[in-house]
Each structure stands twice: as C-alpha cells, then as structure tokens.
Amino acid sequence: MRIDAVSAFETEVGYMKTNRMRFGCFLFGLLVLALLIECAGAITLNVSPGGKDGALGSLGGARDAIRKLKDKGPLKEPVRLSRRGLQSIQLLRSDP
Question: Is the domain of 34 the same as that of 64?
Fold first, then answer.
C-alpha cells in the first residue's frame, strides 16, 4: 500500500514538472510572438542630435523623411521614430 502511494506521488510530481515546462514554453512563445509583432511591418527612423551613427539629425529631418516616403505613395506600414534616450513614437498610415 505504501509503495502505491509513493508511486502515485512520483507520478503526480512528474506531471507537475511536465506542465510547468509546457507553461514555460508557452510563455516563451508568447514573448517571441510579441517581439515579432512589435518589430515587423514598421519603418524605423532613428533620430540623434547631430545625426550621429547614421541617424537623422532632428525631428524636422525625420518629418522631411516621412514626407518623402508619402510623396512616393501611401504608406503601407507604420513609421516608428526612435530618439536616443526617449520612448519611440509610432505613426500610423492615417497620421498627417
């Protein structure tokens, strides 16, 4: 009888470890999916004072770059402005 209880406990612990591993894999998959959605399908323009490291020199320069993109036709994806030290701003196709 004691052997059956120990065996049942070991089986239950095995299921718990398996479920915890599955849940961890599920969370990791959600994280990867969220990163792919965040990074995919957007044009990113980097703004840095002085235009260092290949970035645009000012927000006015970013505005001009967006206008050039719009002159070629309607935007097919959002435009994301990223400025060093600040949170990035995402502009949608409908924004002026």
Answer: no
Give burial (CB, 10 Å; 0-12/13-18/19+) of 40: exposed
Question: Is 67 part of any domain?
Answer: yes
Q: Do 17 and 28 reside in the same domain of the chain?
A: yes
Residue position matching structure tokens 């097919």:
76
Q: Pick out the chain residues at pLDDT < 70.
A: 1-3, 6, 38-41, 51-54, 84-96
Task: Supply the pLDDT for residue 56.
Answer: 79
Question: Does one domain contain both 12 and 23?
Answer: yes
Q: Is the full-model pTM beyond 0.85?
A: no
pLDDT the model gives residue 7: 74
